[in-house]
Amino acid sequence: MELLTKLSSQAEQAEVVQVQRTSTNVGFESNRLKSSQVEETSGVAVRVVKNGRLGFAASSDESALDRLVTNALASADYGDELPIAFPPPQAGPEVVTYDQAIADLPIHRLVEIGQEIIDLILQIEPEVRVNVDLTRGVQRLSIQNHAGTNVSFDRSPLSISFEISRVRDDDVLLMFDVMGTTVWEEDYIAFARRLGAKLKLARRSATIRSGRMPVLFAPTGTLVLGLPLMLGFDGKNVYTGVSPMRDKIGEKLFDGKITVVDDGTLDGKFGSAAYDDEGVAHRQNVLIQEGVLRGFLYDLKTAAQSGTESTGNGERGLFNPPSPSPTNLIFQAGDTPVADIIASIDEGLLVENVLGLGQGNILSGAFSNSLSLAFKIEKGEIVGRVKDVSIAGNVYDLLQNVAAVSQESEWVYTNFSLPHILLDDMNVVAKE
């Protein structure tokens, strides 16, 4: 490639990434079709290492490559000085990430799918308002560098997001989730029915006291616990010293029931591909093994800063350089059926959705959230929906003592596989 040759002749290292994306979106708002659009994006991003410093430039104008070279080299004059090495060719795993059936989905079929979902939910609960957003993409990423890497891979991501609301005087019910795949399966019906089952449970109301009690996090609620850990795994936060887990590899930080894996090699999953966005082969990274911290997530830059190797977690946008990001984050399931976990609770709380996810000082592990959808458990049964309830705690403390992890798990928010997790002594605050 001419561009790579130009860059390589003026820098010690060079990388060229070409991006082509077509995105088709259909949106429903309050049970009605709101919008549909098709967007095409293409461009080139380059990185160089010149005099040991890293430079970056990107452009959607593929006719202005000389300017791109100039900008990348100029950026390197002020870039970070670090011992980064763009990867030589490496064999990536065989991963299914493209399905022609998704690529061929026309707008009218996306509209039909959205309407099917809304009709199904309204049959269960006619009073609710349903927002559905469907996005079908076709993507190609090509990566070349001076060391000989030359890889391209296609993806066909399909995501369907749901937001369901119901307002009765001062009672507001709100629930949400997102499903994602790169392989066509009509899972959206099962997904919508799962939401419908929660709506049925929400027909009954219950009250709950303030105090300490068992709290069972459903998969959609478990992300409250997972998000602070994601930040703690981030190689940038580890390098800068703000991760609470820094310098603790090999230590048992959590209950033995907790095992967390990042795996970008799973067929059809939203975060999967043969390579990351820097040409490093995807693999399975064990982060926590039976409570013991085993690793972090690095891209090339944070790995170089930390004196280690990339874990294949470099993710980029066209106009942004790569940064560490999970692929598919998996909290491994346990050995207790969720029905048995619920049956074991005399008085407690089932958390489905929270408001303000990610707010507060979550880097430290702390969280404090109001609950948008939660249920009271009494004498081993879910007795009704509670409102005006909040929870608070610190993940690094709470996950040291886990009462149970369900044997069932669900894929939620596109690329998270999460079980139910029971914490038997949490602070719950209910409005008097």
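^ that was protein a. below is b, sequence first then the tokens
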Amino acid sequence: MVNQKNQKPQLSEGESNSSKRRAEWQEEAHNAETRKVLEQDANFFINQAVSSPCLSVVKKAEGACIEDTNGRSYLDFHGNNVHHIGYGHPDLKKAFLCKWMLCLLLQGICMRFCS
């Protein structure tokens, strides 16, 4: 039986990927704007044992498509339910804004009458 507690992830795995090839890929794949945002993100990211770091920066999303700061477009096959209605759907925006305004209204009422 192998003692997994003392095993360390390989250099090419997850956020611990500090390989030379990974550094070369990041330099080749991203423009200066993307590298800057990824560096800022890395400063605030709470590292876990083996999780993937951000590989790119989303500039905009609409429908099922995502565009990064390098101008590349991706079709979102994962979506976490977004793929059912699409990014930026007007009905979703309207529902979100209505709930947000209700929260702000209730917060104002509580601040006025509950303090």
